[in-house]
Every structure is written in structure tokens, then in C-alpha cells.
């Protein structure tokens, strides 16, 4: 089989195919343009003036890299195959490269048109079916070079590899390969290429190869195609070198030319084309009920952990590091507090932070504290509290998994610190959950299977250091563990609330769903909460008291009960149930909080399913008897109140500390503060005291828990511009069309500038850039006006090769060498008349 | 709604009033240890040791997980189940075997594990040559030590090296007019099946008979270690009565007698007597080829005996106790050296079956008089407990209590000799203390048993293993600080079932608002966890009632 070679560009143009990408885009329907802009939203910022600008922008390196990174493995493989194919390339050639000579895999043939269509949609490929062109920047990125070996493992073509070779050496190779000699090096190379591409003749040539030579070819076959040779190569290497099957690449290094490799590979560009995504083979199935129930249990635990964390931090929040974030020591302490690992503790703190429940208080002595939003959150039912956390997690770019590690400059990354935002995080989380959502309820897959699928969808870039994983892979792993902690998944399977959280976009079919509006996200959160609600255990309003001075809450308690109990007793064991132990210290704590013994006993009697054991009643009485048993001291003022509970409350109130109150009798307090200070202090506490005898109404205030000023949750830091919605896309396309109409309409009259008048060409900088980029694409020369560093103006004819970073590099016909000009020094540009081209 | 709640700290809460509670208890008992058994909710704890013991008894992780999942009221955290499976999987990777040529060897089915433990500095001195990549020789004398160390390293070894049979000696139970109670039989079977281990039974539930049952199973020479001479005599008496053994076959090895017979009863005290830096009596362990070693009151096992027990791993070992709580926290050493807990019954369960008497525990709170309070406040720190424990007010209360239970067999138990002497004088009752000769003690006990004496004042010498059948009231006036097991032992004095099914009384007289009260709270903890709800009574109320 012979691959048809490119015979020249004039033939294609004559058939009326588009000459440039801009031209092709112009011919595309609006829908196709909208698809392009949706897939590559970076092209929209700012909205390009016309299609020429759009096309040049689509050809810039940054944009192409971004687009290539978002291709799935098969589409990328197709692009890679195009990069090693002749340019332009007919569909047949591409199909041959993908399927091989045998064309035995119908899946590849079936998937290929789709892949090509994707590449076209993304403006990475243009031109007719018979003249497909990969955008030049993409070609440069994907084509093999010694510095960047191609994933295909193919080397340079014979023509490229022999470019610097002496004609004499080429003659020798031709002769050794058994071809008729010719003195023209170009036709000699063409003859050798033709030989390598001819399967029958090549097979005959290789049949005569020594066995070791065949082994060497086998080693280089799938890449990397480079090998080293000594100055005096072994006979079998000599045999290969003589016939051009190995061509010198650098001193001491040889390369297997692309055509020879393709022959040996039976025409395949890839060792293993992967036309379809790897199956998500389910691991051990669990019953959906178990998964949901256990996930709900875990969701409940998550709520408990966040609440416990913030309860602890409301009075004693850790300091904010000067560089931002939580110190390692504070994280350790937090882990101890939550009885978990530091990684998990970092997750809970970050989760609370992402949900806007936790922030720095912004005071001089900066500390972390719950936000006012936390109070609102606390009053929500459990399922809504969970939904709030889960949606915040799903959308956050904060990545707790990084905490405890180090950044590229080996600086530590702290939890809650400023460097923990990773833009792809929400997308990866969504994708992982969406993939899980494609499985039947209760079914899980192993993380490895999941990663294999994700890697197919977005092939990972080769890691900087071996042994490390790329960010997306790590994000996916973190997602798996974090989802488990939150109860979004359980045992690797998506739970019903987790499924509800994803909405309809979670069918796993589309790569990235439409971005959710706030209202939609809210609706999903409500749905998820509704899915969770029946799974959560009903909060109880009773406990069991036992004679060994413990109380067991056989399930989650209603909030007021749990709050009082957590003051009155120490928690001994947590989980589905809670075990409390009463100690003198804990009872004293309750009395400190303004409760009385009778009050406590009544409370226990009311909430206990079992009679209050006598030792417990005694314990309370005993502690109460001695509580606040003070009598001696000097005082500056005193405070009287018939209601001794109020006085107890004032005493227990932390804000009364500066007044230095002491209780003299049940109804009398003595203060170290002067009477006016005492009055003011009490008023500040919300009481209405009167000097001397009269009494006012007493307003009870609760203990002041620390809060930050109102704070908003940290906004996610998305990568690149957001995906535009349909309205914006429509408007953008219309704007581009209009601009394009304008520019193409005006083009004709000014199409023939008058370079002959001797003046410098003058164009706007946007036009300069667009013309330059167009010239790069077409490879034509342009006429420019240029002002050098000394201010001297000149006119030059250059053939631009690359426009990048404000510089244009091109072959300067005037100076007869390759030069680089800063764009801002170019006064204007004009296309040359056709005869110059 | 099921009856079990699985907590994240690996405790299991069992609701005892639930209809499934019994089935659930049976399902979790093999791997979870009963930690507390108060009236409504019992607490079990899942420990690595318990899981490994379950593995040793032939249970696998699937059964454990299944039991938890079946009975749990709330979903069991997946991580906990994984942890259980992983922990159980660690057992049996290492095995102690008897090799036909190399003697005792440690064999591994998992080479990395063997490599890991051989790198440990603690293991290195205990092992010999490497026989092959998976096997290493172990010095036979280090069998106990290596098991203990491996357990601490988290890779418990399965001991398949077996036991020596010891010198055979015919022993039969003489079940004439009595029979082993069902739980005693279960305890014997559980022990025999497991090879070695500890049996936990409440005081008065007949631990001696479990020992006798084990001896009848072993049919071999037996060494019995007990706490003191009185207890040794009682063991002897009981064995003669309940088994085919005769007086001549049973030797006593104590401070006064040094007999070594097929069944020898020795006291801890004589074993741990040190002369010139050595323990001369420890050779008793090697003096015969013992087939069974019984440790009575294993919670009191002294440290030197631990060391020697480590060397006795080839012999069957039976530990007996009522309360495996040691204030020195060496419970795990007991488990690893003598063996895992083979049988455990909550006190209240035995009580429900009628084998021990129901008891009413009362804490009597005594108010110190004003002058006493002042004196207490100014007392030296180390004298404080003694002062408040021996306060004069307690004497009046004790007298009132004794008067209240006039005609019932009453024991007054205390810590301080002065206090006891004074009480004895006021109550007109004999006092048994350390200096009382054994003959005198037995005479007094006998008189008490016959009912000739109705009140007896005893010091802590009577804490253990004295058999006072008809004591129905015990009054504790002071104790060894906060010792939980002492409190349990003292309660045990009145728990022997009464002929008329009468309820036993246990009074603990405590001085209010002093450290006596704090110690009392700690002492009562074990019993409270066993479901004995203490009532609190004010001494003033008691005295007033008495006066009226």
C-alpha cells in the first residue's frame, strides 16, 4: 500500500476548499461557531472583532494547549496521528494511520469520524475531508521532535532526518538499499521514502536483514525511536545504517525514520488506539439500602464533626498565621479535639470554611471563629445542614487534600491558607460523582477503575517527577475519600442524597454540564436534603440514666437537650449513641452556667426514660450545696436581687468578669467595681439595674459566643473563563459575524495600499496583529514599516513565521536573515501584491 | 429497632431490656468484652485482643461483621468494619510450632511480617537461628515472652506448640448430692477448650469448683496458687469434699509447711519471699512436672510471679478472679501470660439465676462534727484519709447499724487497726487482724459459722477467700483508698446465697465532703458498673430513725 503524498497546495485550492481557517469558520453555520465558543470559552475574552481575529486567536499557542488538554484520549490520539501525517491529509490516510493496514478493529473505524468532528468543532482541524489540516500550532505541539518525543513514538520522516546529510552519503544509502542512483538529492530522498512506504518492497528489503538488526528495529519500533551508536558500529547496526533504516540524528545517536517505523507497525500510528472509554467494571455490589443508610450515618457524623469543631472554636479559635492559614500545631490540636487524623481535621476545617461557616475575625489579634452564618446554619434541620456542606464542597476550589504538603517552592501549605485553591477541583469532583452516577444504585467501582476512566477522558500530562501524580489524579483520589467522609458516597457507591446533589447533569454522558445557576444549585440542594431526610435517625428527646452515673442517649438528641446535657455531663463515647458521665466537675459546670440543683433534677426527670438514680440526685445536691459558697471579702459596691437565679446568671456570665462580682448570700452580690461601673457593666450586659433599692425588669442574655463580622463564603476560583450560556453565545456569534461583515466589506477598497508612495504603511495595531497572524498561517510575505530603537524608520519585507508574546519572528527579505521585531515598533503592515508571493 | 448501638470508639451499647438482647449478647460475646453492666445499657468493648481471641476460638471476621450488622440499630461505619477485618487478619500470620528437629519455631505465612518483627529490637534476643526464609527458631524458655512481645507489636502468634500433659494423677469430681452449676460447667469447658485462660465469676459464685472441675479434666498433678494460708486451707477442705482427692494427696506450701504433693497449694506470699536477692521458693514451679497451674484471685498476682509464669507457657494455666480490674493497669499482662478471658458472667445474671444472693448496697454519709471538720482541714495531706476514715462519728453510725441488724450475722470490715480495736471494744466483738494467729482465726470463723458469734470485726486480712456462709450484713468503715476490687471482694463476703433467700446488706460508711467520699465513689465504680445501684442514706436520718 502506498500512502499518497502531498502533491502541492495549488491543487486543493483550485477545488475551492477554504484557504484559511478564518475562511472555513466564515462558512460554518452559527450553531457550529457557538459550539466552538462553548468548547473553547477562552476565545470569547474579549469578544473577537471578526472571524479573522477569532481564527488567529484559536491558533495561539496558549489557546491550543488549553484545547488539546481537554480532549479525550481517542481524539487526542487522532490529533497525534494527524500531526505525523502529511499536511494536508486526506481522511483515508488518517484512517489508515489509526486502524493500521489490517483495519481489523471496527470500533476505531466507527469512532474516528466522531473524533475528527470533535477536532473540527474545536477548530483544531479544518479543510475538506480530503485536505484535513491540523492547526499549525497544534501540529508543532504534537509532532515529534528530539526534545518532545511524540506519544506515538514515531521519529522524523526520512526527508527531515536526511535534511543535513551530504549528498554523497545519500547516494551511498540509495545504492545500498538497491535503488537506482540519481544525482538529485531531493529525488533520491523521495525514492527512499517511496521504498519505505511500499510494503512489498520494504518487506523484501527487511527479509535480508540479520537477526540482530531485526531485534534492534523491534526495540525502537514503538518508541522512543532514538538509539545510540558508537563511532564503530557493530555489523548489524552498520547494515541498518547503510540502508537508511537508521539515520543519524545527532553525533552518536540514530533514529528510526517514521516511514520505516510505520511499515514495521503495519501502518499504525499508535500501539494501542483506545477508541472507547474503559468500562467502569463494578466492584462488589452492596445493597442500595445499606449504602444509603451507612452514608446517612456518615453524613450525620460529618455534621457532628463540623459542629464540634466550631463549638470549640467559638470561644478559643486558633490564631491566623501571618501568611494566612492554620498552623501545623493548631491543626494537630484540632485533630486531637475531633479525635481524628490531621488530614481529616484539615478536611473538616476547610469544609466549614468553604461553606462560609468559619472565617478569620479580622481583629488585630487575628483568630478563626464561626461566622454569623453558622448560627443560621445551626437552626436548619440536619438534612439541610448537610446539603449546605455538600453543595459547598462540590463547588469549592479549595482542596483540603493539599494541606500538610508543600508547594513547588517547598513552602508548607497550611489548612485554611491562601494557596489551597485549585481550579479544576469542582470539575473533577463533579466528574467523579457523575461517573459513579452512571452505575446502578449500590454499585461501586475501585478507585483505580475510576482513575483509568478519568485518564481516558482527560489524558494526564506526564508528571514533572516520576512517582508523583498529576493534579487531576490527586484531586480525583481526594474526591473519593472526601465524598466518603461526607456521606455523598459510601463503600465507593453513590448514595441517594449524593445522586440528588448532582441533578440531571449527572448522567455521566456529557463532559461538563451547563454551569448551574444559584437557583438551580439551591433546588438540587433541596432535593438532596429531601433524599437524606428519611435516612437520618429521628432526633430523640429522652435519655437513659444509670446508677453508675452515666447517661446514655440511644440516638441523636434534639438540640436543646443535647446542649444542656453537654454542659451537665462529660461525653464519654460518641457514635450512633452518646454516653455521658456525670462528675462533680461537670455538674459544677452546669451550675456555673446559671442552673440550679432543682432545675437540673427536674430537667433529668423530664428527659429520662428511667427514674433518676439516687446517687445522681445526691451528686447534684452535693455539688450544689457547695457551689458558690463564698462569704468574705472587701467590696466597693453590692448588688441585690430577690431572684437568686438572676444573680447566679450574672455570676456565670463572662462579661461580668471586669466587675469582679462575688456572691455574699443567695440574693446579694458584692462587686470590686465602683457602683457607677457596676451599673454600667450590668447595663452593658443587658440588665436594667437601678442604683440602690429599686428593681427593674431583668433581661436575660445568653453567653456571648464569638462571631466574626458578617462574612461571605470564599468564592470559588475557576480556571479560565466560565462556560458561556446560550444567550451570551448567541450574542457573541452575532457580534463576530457583524464585525466580520464590516471588516470583509471594507477590505476591498483598502485592499490595495500604495506602498509605492514611499511612506510607511499605517495600520491599527489590531490590524497589524491580525495581518501578521494571517501571514503566518498562509506563509506569505508582508510589507512592514518599522521604527528601530534609535527612532529611524524603515520599510521591510518579511515572511512572518511566528507571532508570540508581542514579537513577530520572520524571514526578513530585506536583510536576508531571520529577525525578530517587537510588534509595537511596527507602524503598519500591508500585504504584498500577488506577484511577490 | 435493634438492641445494639455501635459507637465510633469501638464500644458496643447493648440495651438489656430489649427482646433480642440475649441473642445479641451471645453473638457479640465471643469477640467483645463486657466492660460495664449497669441496669439498662451494657457496654462491651471491641479490642484487638478480643478479636484475636475470637480468631483463636475459631470465629472469623465475617461472623463478627455479621453480628454487628445484624444487631446494630444504626448503620455501622464502614471504616470500623474494615478495621475489624484487618485486625483479625493479623492473627495467625505468625505461628508457634513444634518442629520435629528444631524444637520450638516461629513460622510465618507472610514473609514481610516475619522480616518486620525480626527487625524489632525486642524480638531479636528471643529468637535463635533462621531455619528457612519462613521459619525461625525460638528459645523454648522464651515462649511466653515472645508471645507477649508479639502481641505488643500487633502481630499475635497463634500458639500451636501445644501443652505438656504433665505427670498424670487421677482426679474425679465427687458429685454426690451436688453438681456443677451450668455456668460453672460452661466455664470449665470454655477453659479446657481454649487450653489456658482466665475465668471471671462473681464472689461466692463457686470459683473453687471451677478449679476442681478443671483439675478433673486435666487429671494431672496440679499447682494451686492462692493468696494466703486460710484460703489455702479452704481450698484443701473443698477439694477433699468435692473430689476424689484425699488429705494425703494435697500438700500445703506456705510459711509454716513445705509439703510438695501431687496437688500442692502454695501462697503468693511464700513464693515471693526474697532472700539474698533471690526467690528461693520459685523452684517449686520446677519441682514436679505440673500438668495444670491454677492462679486463684489472679488480679492479685504479684509481679515476680508474672515473670515466672512467662516461663510456664507449656503448661496449662487457669486464672480465677471476681474482678479483673487492677489498679496498676496490668490486666493485659494477665491476659497475655495466663491466657485470654475464657468465661465471664455479669454478676446480676448469676444473681438472677439464684446462685448468689441479691444485695442491697447502701452508702451511709456521715457528717463530720464542726471540730472534726476543722481538724480535717488542718491535717497533713497524707493523714487526711486516715483521719476522715476513722472519724468518731463513724463509730456511732456503725453501732447503730449493728443494732439495727441485731440477730443477723454481721461483719464489720475496716482498714485501720486502731479503729477496728475501738469498734471491737464498743461492739463487744472479737477482732481479726494480721497478728491474730491462724488457729485463733479459724476458731473465730468457726464460732461465727455456728452462730455462736453474730458480730465479727475484721481487717483486710479477711478480704479474700474466707468462707463465712451466713454473713448477711457487711459494714465497711474504711478501705484501701480507692481500690475497686477490694470493694467487690468485700461485697462478695455477703453474696453467698442465704438459706432463706434473704437479701444481703452491704453498708459503706463514708465521711461527707472529704476525700473519703471521693475514694468511695471510685471504689464503687466497678460494682455500679456491674449493676449494683448504691443507695445513699444520711447518717443523721439513720440515727434519728434508730433513736425513735
From TrEMBL, chain A:
Query: A single Gene Ontology molecular function, please?
Result: DNA binding
Keywords attached to this entry: DNA-binding
Q: Where is this region: Disordered?
A: 496-516, 742-764
Domain WYL, which positions? Answer: 768-829
Q: Which Pfam families match?
A: Helicase_C_3, WYL
InterPro entries attached here? WYL_dom, XPB/Ssl2_N
Q: Where is the Helicase XPB/Ssl2 N-terminal domain?
A: 543-665
Q: What is this protein called?
A: DNA-binding protein
Lineage, uppermost ranks: Bacteria, Bacillati, Actinomycetota, Actinomycetes, Kitasatosporales
From TrEMBL, chain B:
**EC no.?**
5.6.2.4
Q: Which UniProt keywords apply?
A: ATP-binding, Helicase, Hydrolase, Isomerase, Nucleotide-binding
List residues traversing the bilayer: none
Domain Helicase ATP-binding: start-end pairs: 188-342
Sorted alphabetically, which InterPro entries does this protein's record hold?
A: ATP-dep_DNA_Helicase (IPR050615), ERCC3_RAD25_C (IPR032438), Helicase/UvrB_N (IPR006935), Helicase_ATP-bd (IPR014001), Helicase_C-like (IPR001650), P-loop_NTPase (IPR027417), XPB/Ssl2_N (IPR032830)
The keyword DNA damage is annotated on this UniProt entry: no
Pfam families in the record? ERCC3_RAD25_C, Helicase_C_3, ResIII
Molecular function (GO) terms for this protein are:
3'-5' DNA helicase activity; ATP binding; DNA binding; hydrolase activity
The answer to whether keyword ATP-binding applies is yes
Catalytic activities:
ATP + H2O = ADP + phosphate + H(+); Couples ATP hydrolysis with the unwinding of duplex DNA by translocating in the 3'-5' direction
Give every Helicase C-terminal domain span: 396-548
CDD domains listed in its UniProt record? SF2_C_XPB
Which family is annotated? Belongs to the helicase family. RAD25/XPB subfamily.
NCBIfam families the record matches: repair_heli_XPB
Q: What protein name applies here?
A: DNA 3'-5' helicase
UniProt organism field? Streptomyces klenkii
Amino acid at each position: 500500500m502506498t500512502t499518497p503524498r502531498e502533491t502541492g497546495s495549488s491543487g486543493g485550492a483550485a477545488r475551492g476548499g477554504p484557504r484559511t481557517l478564518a475562511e472555513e469558520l466564515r462558512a460554518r453555520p452559527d450553531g457550529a461557531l457557538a459550539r466552538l465558543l462553548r468548547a473553547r470559552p477562552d476565545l470569547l475574552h474579549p469578544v473577537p472583532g471578526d472571524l479573522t481575529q477569532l481564527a488567529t486567536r484559536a491558533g495561539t499557542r496558549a489557546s491550543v494547549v488549553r484545547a488539546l488538554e481537554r480532549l479525550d484520549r481517542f481524539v487526542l490520539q487522532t490529533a497525534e496521528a494527524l500531526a505525523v501525517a502529511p499536511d494536508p491529509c486526506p481522511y483515508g490516510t488518517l484512517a489508515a494511520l489509526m486502524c493500521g493496514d489490517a483495519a481489523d478493529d471496527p470500533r476505531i473505524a466507527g469512532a474516528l469520524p466522531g473524533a475528527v468532528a470533535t477536532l473540527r468543532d474545536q477548530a483544531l482541524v479544518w479543510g475538506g475531508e480530503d485536505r484535513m489540516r491540523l492547526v499549525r500550532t497544534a501540529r508543532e505541539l504534537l509532532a515529534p521532535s528530539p526534545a518532545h518525543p511524540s506519544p506515538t513514538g514515531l521519529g522524523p520522516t526520512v526527508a527531515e532526518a536526511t535534511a543535513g546529510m551530504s549528498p554523497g552519503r545519500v547516494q551511498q544509502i540509495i545504492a545500498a538499499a538497491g535503488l537506482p542512483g540519481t544525482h538529485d538529492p531531493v529525488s533520491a530522498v523521495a525514492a527512499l521514502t517511496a521504498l519505505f512506504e511500499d510494503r512489498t518492497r520494504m518487506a523484501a528489503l527487511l527479509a535480508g536483514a540479520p537477526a540482530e538488526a531485526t531485534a534492534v528495529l523491534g526495540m525502537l519500533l514503538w518508541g522512543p525511536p532514538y538509539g545510540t551508536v558508537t563511532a564503530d558500529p557493530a555489523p548489524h547496526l552498520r547494515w541498518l545504517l547503510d540502508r537508511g533504516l537508521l539515520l543519524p540524528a545527532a553525533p552518536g545517536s540514530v533514529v528510526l525514520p517514521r516511514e520505516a517505523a510505520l511499515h514495521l507497525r503495519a501502518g499504525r500510528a499508535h500501539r494501542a488506539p483506545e477508541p472507547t472509554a474503559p468500562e467502569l467494571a463494578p466492584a462488589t455490589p452492596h445493597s442500595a439500602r445499606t449504602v444509603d443508610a451507612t452514608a446517612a450515618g456518615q453524613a450525620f457524623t460529618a455534621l457532628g464533626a463540623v459542629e464540634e469543631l466550631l463549638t470549640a472554636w467559638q470561644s478559643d479559635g486558633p490564631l491566623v498565621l501571618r501568611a494566612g492559614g492554620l498552623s501545623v500545631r493548631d491543626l494537630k490540636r484540632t485533630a486531637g479535639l475531633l479525635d481524628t487524623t490531621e488530614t481529616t481535621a484539615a478536611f473538616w476545617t476547610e469544609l466549614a470554611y468553604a461553606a462560609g461557616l468559619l472565617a478569620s475575625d479580622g481583629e488585630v489579634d487575628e483568630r478563626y471563629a464561626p461566622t454569623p452564618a453558622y448560627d443560621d446554619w445551626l437552626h436548619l434541620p440536619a438534612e439541610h445542614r448537610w446539603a449546605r456542606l455538600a453543595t459547598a464542597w462540590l463547588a469549592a476550589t479549595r482542596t483540603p487534600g493539599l494541606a500538610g504538603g508543600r508547594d513547588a517552592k517547598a513552602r508548607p501549605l497550611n489548612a485554611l491558607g491562601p494557596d489551597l485553591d485549585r481550579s479544576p477541583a469542582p470539575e473533577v469532583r463533579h466528574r467523579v460523582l457523575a461517573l459513579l452516577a452512571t452505575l446502578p444504585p449500590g454499585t461501586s467501582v475501585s478507585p483505580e477503575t475510576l482513575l483509568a476512566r478519568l485518564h481516558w477522558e482527560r489524558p494526564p500530562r506526564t508528571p514533572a517527577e516520576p512517582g508523583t501524580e498529576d493534579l487531576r489524579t490527586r484531586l480525583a483520589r481526594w474526591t473519593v475519600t472526601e465524598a466518603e467522609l461526607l456521606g455523598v458516597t459510601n463503600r465507593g457507591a453513590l448514595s441517594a442524597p449524593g445522586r440528588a446533589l448532582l441533578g440531571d447533569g449527572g448522567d455521566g454522558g456529557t463532559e461538563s454540564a451547563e454551569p448551574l445557576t444559584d437557583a438551580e444549585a439551591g433546588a438540587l440542594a433541596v432535593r438532596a436534603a429531601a433524599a437524606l431526610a428519611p435516612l437520618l435517625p429521628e432526633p430523640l428527646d429522652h435519655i437513659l440514666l444509670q446508677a453508675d452515673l452515666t447517661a446514655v442517649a440511644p440516638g441523636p438528641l434534639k438540640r436543646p437537650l443535647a446542649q444542656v446535657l453537654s454542659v451537665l455531663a462529660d461525653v464519654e463515647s460518641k457514635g450512633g449513641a452518646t454516653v455521658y458521665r456525670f462528675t462533680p466537675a461537670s455538674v459544677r459546670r452546669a451550675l456555673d452556667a446559671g442552673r440550679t440543683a432543682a432545675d437540673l433534677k427536674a430537667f433529668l426527670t423530664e428527659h429520662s426514660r428511667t427514674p433518676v438514680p439516687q446517687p445522681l440526685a445526691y451528686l447534684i445536691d452535693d455539688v450544689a450545696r457547695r457551689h458558690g459558697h463564698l462569704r468574705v471579702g472587701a467590696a466597693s459596691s453590692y448588688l441585690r436581687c430577690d431572684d437568686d437565679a438572676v444573680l447566679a446568671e450574672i455570676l456565670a456570665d463572662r462579661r461580668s468578669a471586669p466587675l469582679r462580682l462575688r456572691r455574699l448570700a443567695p440574693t446579694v452580690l458584692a462587686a470590686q467595681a465602683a457602683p457607677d461601673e457596676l451599673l454600667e457593666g450590668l447595663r452593658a450586659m443587658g440588665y436594667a439595674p437601678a442604683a440602690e433599692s429599686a428593681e427593674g425588669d431583668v433581661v436575660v442574655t445568653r453567653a456571648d459566643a464569638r462571631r466574626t463580622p458578617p462574612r461571605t463564603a470564599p468564592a470559588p476560583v475557576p480556571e479560565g473563563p466560565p462556560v458561556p450560556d446560550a444567550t451570551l453565545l448567541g450574542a457573541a456569534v452575532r457580534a463576530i459575524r457583524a464585525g466580520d461583515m464590516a471588516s470583509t466589506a471594507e477590505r476591498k477598497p483598502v485592499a490595495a495600499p500604495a506602498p509605492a508612495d514611499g511612506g510607511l504603511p499605517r495600520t491599527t495595531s489590531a490590524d497589524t496583529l491580525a495581518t501578521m497572524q494571517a501571514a503566518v498561517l498562509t506563509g506569505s510575505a508582508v510589507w512592514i514599516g518599522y521604527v528601530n530603537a534609535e527612532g529611524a524608520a524603515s520599510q521591510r519585507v518579511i515572511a512572518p513565521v511566528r507571532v508570540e508574546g508581542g514579537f513577530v519572528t520572520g524571514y526578513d527579505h530585506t536583510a536576508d536573515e531571520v529577525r525578530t521585531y517587537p510588534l509595537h515598533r511596527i507602524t503598519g503592515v500591508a500585504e504584498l501584491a500577488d506577484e511577490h508571493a | 429497632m435493634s438492641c445494639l448501638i455501635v459507637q465510633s470508639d469501638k464500644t458496643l451499647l447493648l440495651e438489656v431490656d430489649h427482646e433480642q438482647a440475649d441473642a445479641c449478647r451471645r453473638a457479640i460475646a465471643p469477640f467483645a468484652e463486657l466492660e460495664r453492666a449497669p441496669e439498662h445499657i451494657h457496654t462491651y468493648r471491641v479490642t484487638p485482643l478480643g478479636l484475636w481471641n475470637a480468631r483463636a476460638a475459631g470465629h472469623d471476621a465475617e461472623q463478627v461483621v455479621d453480628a454487628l450488622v445484624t444487631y446494630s440499630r444504626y448503620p455501622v461505619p464502614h471504616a470500623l468494619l474494615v478495621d475489624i477485618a484487618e485486625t483479625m487478619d493479623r492473627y495467625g500470620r505468625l505461628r508457634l510450632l513444634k518442629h520435629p528437629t528444631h524444637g520450638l519455631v516461629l513460622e510465618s505465612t507472610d514473609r514481610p511480617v516475619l522480616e518486620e518483627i525480626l527487625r524489632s529490637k525486642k524480638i531479636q534476643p528471643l529468637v535463635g537461628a533462621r531455619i528457612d526464609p519462613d521459619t525461625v527458631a525460638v528459645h523454648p524458655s522464651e515462649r511466653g515472652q515472645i508471645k507477649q512481645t508479639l502481641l505488643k507489636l500487633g502481630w499475635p502468634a497463634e500458639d500451636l506448640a501445644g501443652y505438656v500433659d504433665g505427670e498424670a494423677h487421677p482426679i474425679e469430681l465427687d458429685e454426690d448430692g451436688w453438681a456443677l452449676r451450668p455456668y460453672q460447667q460452661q466455664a470449665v469447658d470454655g477453659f479446657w477448650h481454649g487450653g489456658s485462660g482466665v475465668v471471671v465469676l462473681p464472689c461466692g459464685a463457686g470459683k473453687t469448683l471451677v478449679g476442681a472441675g478443671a483439675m478433673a479434666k486435666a487429671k494431672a498433678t496440679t499447682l494451686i496458687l492462692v493468696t494466703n494460708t486460710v484460703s489455702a486451707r479452704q481450698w484443701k477442705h473443698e477439694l477433699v469434699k468435692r473430689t476424689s482427692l484425699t488429705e494425703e494427696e494435697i500438700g500445703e506450701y506456705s510459711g509454716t509447711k513445705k509439703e510438695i504433693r501431687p496437688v500442692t497449694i502454695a501462697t503468693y506470699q511464700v513464693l515471693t519471699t526474697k532472700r539474698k536477692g533471690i526467690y528461693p521458693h520459685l523452684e517449686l514451679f520446677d519441682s514436679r512436672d505440673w500438668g495444670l497451674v491454677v492462679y486463684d484471685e489472679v488480679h492479685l498476682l504479684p509481679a515476680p510471679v508474672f515473670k515466672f509464669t512467662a516461663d510456664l507457657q507449656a503448661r496449662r494455666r487457669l486464672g480465677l478472679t471476681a474482678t479483673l480490674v487492677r489498679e496498676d493497669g496490668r490486666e493485659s499482662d494477665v491476659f497475655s501470660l495466663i491466657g485470654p478471658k475464657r468465661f465471664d458472667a455479669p454478676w446480676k445474671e448469676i444473681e438472677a439465676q439464684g446462685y448468689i444472693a441479691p444485695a442491697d448496697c447502701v452508702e451511709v454519709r456521715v457528717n463530720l462534727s464542726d471540730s472534726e471538720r476543722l481538724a480535717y482541714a488542718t491535717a497533713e495531706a497524707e493523714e487526711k484519709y486516715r483521719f476522715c476514715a476513722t472519724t468518731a462519728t463513724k463509730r456511732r453510725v456503725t453501732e447503730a447499724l449493728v443494732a439495727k441488724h441485731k440477730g443477723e450475722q454481721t461483719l464489720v470490715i475496716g482498714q485501720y487497726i486502731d479503729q477496728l480495736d475501738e469498734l471491737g471494744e464498743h461492739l463487744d466483738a472479737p477482732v481479726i487482724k494480721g497478728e491474730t494467729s491462724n488457729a485463733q482465726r479459724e476458731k473465730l470463723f468457726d464460732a461465727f459459722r455456728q452462730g455462736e458469734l453474730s458480730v465479727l470485726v475484721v481487717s483486710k486480712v479477711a478480704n479474700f477467700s474466707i468462707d463465712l456462709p451466713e454473713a448477711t450484713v457487711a459494714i465497711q468503715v474504711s478501705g484501701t483508698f480507692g481500690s475497686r476490687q477490694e470493694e467487690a471482694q468485700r461485697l462478695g463476703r455477703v453474696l453467698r446465697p442465704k438459706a432463706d433467700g434473704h437479701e444481703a446488706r452491704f453498708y459503706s460508711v463514708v465521711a461527707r465532703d472529704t476525700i473519703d467520699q471521693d475514694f468511695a465513689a471510685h471504689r464503687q465504680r466497678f460494682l455500679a458498673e456491674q449493676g449494683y445501684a448504691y443507695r445513699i442514706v444520711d447518717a443523721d436520718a439513720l440515727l434519728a430513725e434508730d433513736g425513735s
